[in-house]
Design brief:
With 247 residues, the protein is α/β, with parallel strands linked by helices. Helices cover 47% and strands 15% of the residues. The longest helix has 29 residues. The structure holds NADP nicotinamide-adenine-dinucleotide phosphate (NAP).
Amino acid sequence: MSVSGRHVIVTGGGSGVGAACARLLADEGAKVTILGRTEEKLAAQSLPYQVCDVTSIEAVAAAFAAARAESGPIDVVIANAGAAASVPFAKMTPADLQAMLAVNLMGVSNVWQAALPDMKANGWGRMIAVASTAGLRGYPYVSAYCAAKHAVVGLTRALGRELARTGITVNAICPGFVETPLLERSIDTITAKTGLSRAAAEDTLKADNPQGRFIQPCEVAASALWLCSEGAKSVNGHALSLSGGEL
Ligand SMILES: NC(=O)c1ccc[n+]([C@@H]2O[C@H](COP(=O)([O-])OP(=O)(O)OC[C@H]3O[C@@H](n4cnc5c(N)ncnc54)[C@H](OP(=O)(O)O)[C@@H]3O)[C@@H](O)[C@H]2O)c1
């Protein structure tokens, strides 16, 4: 693959999918910088990091400047930081919706925009968002999350066309349920709100995937690595479903 020597930024790299992407790309020879809000989680990954809330454009600018000073111009951004809050639509507040848009949509736009000058100057770049199957279909009780992830897919499709002649590709990876701390918190919420056992809650979620299982973070990382390769240079503005056939 072709990430060796590339400077890769992974947001939300301190846990779950982001940590798996960071580890795989570092193992493939990339210079990886991980971003997140919690220093202990970042430090535990033994990779260069910047503490950064991706919802803040100023914080992103500062983190990218520091990362650039340490490891050079940015070649790849994996915009993975995200959160999934659940609430029935009737009870959803404007603040709930804003919070989901802030991290899941603005958090992607902010980091892609920050990396764009480096990628344009190099005539090569990879912008990758970790969206979700919730960017391609609806699920109950997560309307704000679904709205934000659909918006990321829209951003991906539009930007892919806008940058098509620059050597930069823009793609979204859309996994179904992935076994990570985020999924653990979702299962906690389901058991607390419904009284279902943990096993029953897990089975309910696994039933969405025709393969009847949770996806592993390393599977998302493998797709991100492939999207960075020269062999994937025609894949652009695409939303890649990793869902066992759900979509
Ligand atoms: N797990 C699933 O079932 C699933 C399915 C489809 C898509 N996804 C997507 O996959 C991505 C990764 O999630 P995950 O499952 O790996 O969950 P996770 O382990 O909770 O990872 C999310 C990461 O994002 C970071 N983060 C959250 N808000 C942030 C902010 N404002 N600024 C910077 N970093 C922030 C978190 O670290 P800090 O809190 O320390 O900042 C955390 O490391 C998300 O975009 C999620 O929507 C997950």
